[in-house]
């Protein structure tokens, strides 16, 4: 692990990721607070919620652009500087707090997020080009863990800025500064993230879906539709857990002999700890599992947690379930990226992973909102049973798809 952390490419990526995640998480919570201050706050908060999710849909497109980009290092640094410039513009207008300014602010944040997706695709290409195959899983895990650790720090900083200054423009300036610092880190470590430029075939001659189908079958033993659909269901189940726990603890916290805020804090700490440990370790039993086996375990983890909430709502058991969810997630995602990188042509790396990200992320917000609405309309039992049912469907589907593919 220490030897890996001495890798100059990883150091450059981690330092840039630190400042980028800090700025993005800081401003996302501030943007929600900003929207909540308008009359009819439900509408404005909904607009922000949708606008922060939609950029994920463009993963395939930004990935394609990343693949076709020459001088990737230059564009990666430039992207951060453009994002910084956008937030400096935002800082000039945001304190006016009129409806049209709100929509301009949302558009600026949206454009920055899309640029961030493009930059993320470029970094994926850098990792494929600069990191040895044997180290990619751990590099992806460490990089993901840094983001996981910094996100709550950024949110806390955002809350403190608004609580102390009530100045949204200051938040925009600080966010711009984080992107400038990220660009500085990339500029200082420029030689460590430089990739070999190759002539790229036109996008029309490189369809990505057949490549996805081939790679999925080779590395998962399942067809692409089944594997991606199972990942979508898994995302719905895990993303819904946070919202369900936030609601469940309102009535459950007194029985657990802790306050509501302490219960939420403990869950978040355990989830982050599990995710980080899953990402940075590489000698556990789970590291010997195939992607198919890890997918099955990952599906069972949220199903176990929902079962605990439904029949044995004890704090210790809930924390164990959330640790399992975080730990397996920290294993599955980096392993999936690392193994698939070996099978993907370098000129399709961005398109491949961008498209997968778009597909997997697309259904998660809709599904999780549906489970939360069911909680509010019917109750805890109905929402938990639906989530458990989705996990069981995914589990059976994965087994059937794997057996069918092997015949």
TrEMBL record:
UniProt membrane topology term: Multi-pass membrane protein
Localization per record: Cell membrane
Chief place where the protein resides: membrane
Transmembrane portions of the chain: 12-35, 41-63, 75-94, 100-118, 139-162, 168-189, 224-245, 257-277, 289-309, 315-332, 352-374, 380-400
Keyword annotations of the record: Cell membrane, Membrane, Transmembrane, Transmembrane helix
Entry GO terms, CC: plasma membrane
PANTHER family per the UniProt record, alphabetical: INTEGRAL MEMBRANE EFFLUX PROTEIN-RELATED, MAJOR FACILITATOR SUPERFAMILY ASSOCIATED DOMAIN-CONTAINING PROTEIN
Protein name from the UniProt record: MFS transporter
Species: Lactiplantibacillus pentosus
